[in-house]
Amino acid sequence: MAISIDRVYQKVLAFANKEQRGYITPQEFNLFADHAQMEIFEQYFYDLNQFKRASGNSGEYSDIVSIIKDKISMFEHWHAGSYNVTVANEYGDCLNFDTDIPDLYRLGEISVSYFKSGSETTIGVCEQLTPKEFVIRSKSKLTKQTEDRPVFVKRDAQGQLRIKIYPYPKTVGYVDANGVAVPNGSDITTPTKKAGVSADYIRKPKNPNWGYVVINDKPLYNSTSSQDFELHASEETELVYRILALFGIAIEKPQLVQTAVGLGTAQIQQEKQ
Asked: pTM of the entire structure?
């Protein structure tokens, strides 16, 4: 499903040369390519919301929604993490997105396992709360978080996005030498099985990169160091037009921008029809 970055680059160069608008260096192309890919990727979610609102019982719109969901599906992932849990670490962080899910774009559902007795565990789906909502709910026994109704709160720690889960899964995953689950407070100081926290999420596309080697003062494509676009194959033409438009803005060539935008608009209308 990947789109060849070399093919897109060659199309961009050919079009720019045809319009006599100059040469796009590999460094410039890679910068514009990343920007263009993220624009299209983020447009998926905007379009999905718009068509969902308009769909109702319309089969026409439901087909479009299905197509957009299919384009997004390749970025849907599941992170099953295991974390050291100690009594002293109560209310500590269960997920550090910068290290556990560095390519996070949108967070979905978070689940946590709670140890009961023997091998029995309870898996709870966490509800997200703001810090203010958490404080308010925690004051009431009726709304306070429980292992059957866990919650999580996002927080920023020195520029890193993390979450805290309540109740903290401090009794999860302790096993003895025979693999038998035991509660916290035992003589075991190091858990050999760790707390289970899992999350489904949508990741960001990998940064596209036209890799090259320089031979006779000319950059030649190197597939080994390259990264193709991760968008749906149908987006290839749109990528070309968007990159050309960005290049036109950078070199202050409004005519190239207008041409690229016009071609892109025509392409979009054709796809909608």
From this structure: 0.74
